[in-house]
Design the sequence.
């Protein structure tokens, strides 16, 4: 299950490029928290702290307890982290406030476990049609990922959404008949057919060269008289 991580934050009053440059110089990152019954609130967090959380995250969904000065801790999902296209620096962080006793929706990665029998024995290919699954659960039941045992799949076998081993307290509204994993036969490319071409015979010229009108037969020079 996703671990709840404590993160210190302070209120942010300055806006605009100059304020962001100042935050960057101080080793901080602008952030915002929204959702729940409170109005969106501008915050700032230490770049070092948020970088450390991201580097140790075991999944895409990170639960944090924001310790904002003068307030009791607010539980939130790390909703979005904006990175610079050049260098990958963290530019902005979005937090989505949640309640521990209310259901939340999240996308959780599906991870195959094991080597399918059809791949190991017959050289088949494992196809993964669903990379992440939209789920619904309480925050305490939020998994980092869902592991799916694919070792028993033979060629032609499939695992559908209805077959996925969802953890206790986790449900999904994704259509149950959709295929999540399948093993297909290897593709054999046929060699292109080679057609032997008959050798080209040398061109034979049978027509005689046309002689100029009045010229002696055989092309002989006219004898001197």
Sequence:
């Amino acid at each position: 299950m996703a671990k709840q991580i404590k993160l210190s934050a302070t209120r942010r009053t300055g806006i605009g490029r100059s304020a962001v440059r100042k935050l960057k110089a101080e080793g901080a990152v602008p952030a915002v928290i929204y959702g729940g019954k409170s109005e969106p609130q501008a915050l700032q967090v230490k770049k070092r702290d948020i970088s450390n959380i991201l580097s140790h995250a075991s999944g895409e969904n990170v639960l944090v307890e924001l310790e904002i000065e003068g307030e009791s801790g607010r539980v939130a999902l790390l909703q979005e982290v904006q990175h610079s296209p050049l260098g990958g620096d963290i530019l902005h962080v979005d937090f989505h406030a949640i309640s521990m006793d209310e259901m939340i929706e999240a996308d959780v990665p599906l991870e195959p476990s094991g080597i399918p029998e059809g791949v190991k024995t017959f050289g088949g290919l494992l196809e993964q049609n669903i990379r992440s699954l939209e789920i619904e659960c309480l925050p305490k039941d939020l998994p980092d990922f869902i592991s799916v045992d694919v070792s028993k799949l033979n060629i032609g076998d499939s695992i559908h959404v209805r077959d996925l081993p969802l953890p206790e307290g986790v449900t999904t509204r994704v259509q149950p008949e959709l295929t999540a994993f399948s093993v297909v036969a290897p593709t054999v490319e046929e060699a292109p057919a080679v057609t032997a071409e008959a050798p080209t015979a040398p061109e034979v010229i049978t027509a005689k060269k046309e002689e100029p009108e009045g010229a002696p037969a055989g092309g002989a020079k006219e004898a001197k008289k």
Notes: Residues 219-225 have pLDDT under 50 and may be disordered. The CA atoms of residues 28 and 46 lie 4 Å apart.
